[in-house]
């Protein structure tokens, strides 16, 4: 079942570690890890560092997201400010990460699988050279929370550039108090995190305020988000299927019009469903083929059934 935890529920928050260079680091684990390091587990923690700290260029052996939560700094030459989302594939070096001189930096690290730890360069360059068919790639995306929820009280916007052919995706979400919405189905990828940046979320009649993290496994289905009395601003981050290529269920099938993304039109009111755009506000991710849209889908303008749509070209 999904793991849901707010900052104020963490048993031992902000564990401090003094570094040899005079700096300090703090870590808050939202998902407890078994002592047995052979047990695979998702990882979610807030890592904070003192002003002026510099993290050397390094890499990890699993895909990961990092989201800036407090302070500011730079990653390489890229500025890091509140809400910035950095995704790096496994075995992709990034950095150095430089913490600001006045406020330091705090970022939330999210992984679908256990990672043994950072491997710095140039010390571990040989490790990279031994990885067969390595496909390094990374991106920093800036979410837009300046959204206007519609009649449903929900607004979603895809994070620009954060996508690949293995179901990688991300969205910024803004919800009014009491609004409800289901996240996109995580089963096409390798699991999903919901990160509440502002406001609160309600789960099992319990209010999770401020920073709250939700992990949804790839076989657990869409997660229903319910905004608390303050409303909420959140990120939804989908992990891609590990490794190269696409899983069989995502591969284009010969002769089924799966090559180019299409548009589908309601024959009753002419509402158009664009496969490229999807309908994030309805929990349908950009790039979702019409065949993968749930059979319960109804036209948002006239409530026509899915069967009442036809493929059209413009």
Q: Topology as H/E string?
A: EEEEEEEEEEEEEHEEEEEEEEEEE
Overall residue-averaged pLDDT value? 87
Cα Rg: 21 Å
Task: Measure the end-to-end span.
Answer: 43 Å
Q: What percent of residues are in strands?
A: 35-45%
Explain how this protein is built.
The protein has 314 residues and is mainly beta. It has one helix spanning 125-129, and strands at 3-6, 15-18, 24-29, 43-49, 54-55, 58-59, 64-71, 73-75, 78-80, 85-88, 97-99, 105-111, 119-120, 138-141, 154-158, 169-175, 180-182, 192-203, 206-209, 212-216, 224-238, 263-266, 272-274, 309-312. Strands 1, 15, 16, 17, 18, 19, 20 and 21 form an eight-stranded antiparallel beta sheet that branches. A hairpin with a 2-residue loop joins strand 8 (73-75) and strand 9.
Gist of the model:
By secondary structure, this protein is an all-beta fold. Helices cover 2% and strands 39% of the residues. The protein contains one helix and 24 strands.
Map the helices and strands.
Blueprint: E1 3-6, E2 15-18, E3 24-29, E4 43-49, E5 54-55, E6 58-59, E7 64-71, E8 73-75, E9 78-80, E10 85-88, E11 97-99, E12 105-111, E13 119-120, H1 125-129, E14 138-141, E15 154-158, E16 169-175, E17 180-182, E18 192-203, E19 206-209, E20 212-216, E21 224-238, E22 263-266, E23 272-274, E24 309-312
Antiparallel strand pairs: 1-20, 2-3, 3-4, 4-12, 5-11, 6-13, 7-10, 7-12, 8-9, 8-11, 10-14, 15-16, 16-21, 17-21, 18-19, 18-20, 18-21, 22-23, 22-24
